[in-house]
């Protein structure tokens, strides 16, 4: 008989269900009904499945925290082998999910074998409700720990996938600022043109923070429609809208204790800016369709390619939100402003894609180095990476660097400054002839010496 204290504990947990999805697999409808009714008191979602042959399909279509699995499905077979078989099938797909086996035939040898094969626990039917709850609750704790362990392992085994060495004074200053702010929990606003590496810098901050063993969640606000903003970021309750068939956490919750990287924050409407401001200030959120406030413990990193202060002055961006975002503001330089790094980055991407596409022995020739250095790179590092990948793919025995010509053909038609025009035409000729000085000089009607003098003049 339960004590009064036990009753109070169960009453408390019934009112505060754990956010967990439990799957019960059994061929007995009475078992499914009674187990589901009891466990629904304590866990947010409990699903049932009568046919074991549908188990792998259901497992692939949904996510479960714990599975309760009967050991005997076919009449006349009571050795538990079928349950062990399905447990192994599940473990092949995900060996971290806790599985509790159920049977009416409590042979000790079977229990020992089940535990040895990977079962989390072993329940005899008919069960004691208190023991059933305790077993499932412990398995939910195990599921949480297993997920956390996988995240740690992914972080630990993730090798470097970008180049951070720099010879540029501007970029050296950026790296110094990042190193100073990384260990803190301060909000960081990363500014810079498209392709300057804002996501890479967000990763750098996260991996050197106290939250490095927790998730980094990237949310591209530029690709998120206004109608999906709340459901994607905050999650939703079952029935909150037409297609909300189950409770679902949002991306903010999935980053709990970790880092949220909100990219293209300037794209938010004023109404959504107000919701974001509330989240940052109060550190709580409500899923769409529910009133329960959920605490949020994350670090925020923001990014945009727009001048936010100008947007504030033009009334397109909230001033109070702007000051919340930029506890620390870091401006990433365009690639044309850190030319010291162009060749090293080019070599890095060449090695990366030569390895990927199994094309060894490719190298950047001297004439091609000149072409890379003289180009303005309006798409920044991203454009350089795509250029080197395309060049590797389309090259055979020797590298043929293929810089997009149309990108450098754009010139301000109102600009009639002769020196600027000369600078532009020299770059165009060098690109056209892939750095061949003689051919570029002929095309321009200059001698090689005259072209060299002009290249020196313009820093080419």
Describe the structure.
The chain has 460 residues and is α/β, with parallel strands linked by helices. Helices cover 47% and strands 13% of the residues. The protein is built from 20 helices and 14 strands. It has helices at 4-15, 29-39, 55-61, 81-93, 108-116, 129-157, 169-181, 198-207, 229-234, 251-254, 270-282, 308-313, 319-325, 342-356, 366-374, 380-394, 405-409, 418-432, 437-444, 448-457, and strands at 18-25, 43-49, 66-70, 99-103, 121-124, 188-191, 216-220, 235-236, 248-249, 259-263, 284-285, 294-295, 299-304, 328-331. The strands form four sheets. It has a five-stranded parallel β-sheet, with helices on both faces. A five-stranded parallel β-sheet has the order 7-10-13-6-14. Helix 2 links the parallel strand 1 (18-25) and strand 2 (43-49). Helix 14 (342-356) packs across helix 16 and helix 18 (418-432) packs across helix 19 (437-444). The longest helix has 29 residues, at 129-157. The radius of gyration is 30 Å and the shape is elongated.
């Amino acid at each position: 008989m339960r004590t009064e204290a036990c009753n109070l504990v169960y009453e408390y947990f019934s009112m505060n269900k754990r956010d967990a999805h439990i799957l019960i697999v059994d061929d007995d409808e009475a078992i499914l009904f009674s187990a589901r009714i009891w466990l629904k008191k304590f866990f947010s979602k409990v699903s049932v499945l009568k046919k074991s042959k549908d188990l792998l399909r259901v497992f692939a279509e949904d996510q479960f925290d714990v599975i309760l699995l009967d050991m005997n499905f076919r009449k006349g077979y009571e050795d538990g082998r079928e349950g062990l078989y399905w447990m192994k099938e599940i473990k092949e797909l995900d060996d971290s999910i806790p599985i509790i086996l159920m049977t009416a035939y409590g042979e000790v040898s079977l229990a020992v074998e089940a535990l040895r094969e990977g079962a989390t626990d072993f329940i005899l039917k008919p069960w004691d409700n208190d023991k059933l709850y305790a077993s499932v609750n412990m398995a939910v704790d195990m599921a949480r720990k297993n997920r956390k362990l996988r995240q740690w392992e992914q972080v630990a085994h993730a090798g470097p996938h970008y180049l951070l060495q720099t010879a540029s004074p501007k970029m050296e200053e950026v790296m110094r600022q990042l190193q100073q702010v990384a260990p803190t929990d301060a909000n960081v606003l990363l500014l810079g043109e498209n392709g300057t590496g804002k996501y890479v810098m967000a990763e750098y901050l996260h991996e050197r923070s106290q939250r490095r063993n927790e998730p980094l969640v990237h949310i591209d606000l530029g690709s998120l429609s206004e109608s999906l903003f709340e459901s994607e970021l905050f999650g939703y309750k079952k029935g909150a809208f037409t297609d909300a068939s189950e409770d679902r956490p949002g991306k903010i919750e999935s980053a709990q204790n970790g880092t949220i990287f909100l990219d293209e924050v300037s794209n938010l409407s004023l109404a959504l800016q107000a919701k974001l401001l509330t989240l940052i200030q109060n550190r709580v959120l409500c899923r769409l369709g529910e009133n329960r406030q959920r605490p949020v413990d994350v670090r925020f990193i923001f990014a945009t390619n727009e001048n936010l202060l100008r947007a504030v002055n033009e009334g397109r961006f909230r001033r109070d939100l702007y000051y919340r975002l930029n506890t620390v503001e870091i401006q990433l330089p365009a690639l044309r402003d850190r030319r010291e790094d162009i060749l090293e980055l080019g070599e890095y991407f060449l090695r990366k894609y030569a390895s990927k596409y199994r094309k060894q022995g490719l190298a950047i020739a001297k004439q091609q180095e000149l072409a890379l250095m003289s180009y303005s790179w309006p798409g920044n590092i991203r454009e350089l990476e795509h250029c080197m990948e395309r060049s590797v793919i389309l090259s055979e025995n020797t590298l043929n660097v293929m810089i997009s010509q149309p990108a450098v053909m754009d010139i301000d038609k109102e600009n009639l400054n002769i020196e600027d025009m000369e600078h532009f035409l020299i770059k165009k000729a060098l690109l056209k002839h892939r750095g061949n000085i003689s051919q570029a000089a002929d095309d321009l009607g200059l001698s090689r010496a005259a072209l060299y003098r002009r290249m020196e003049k313009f820093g080419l």
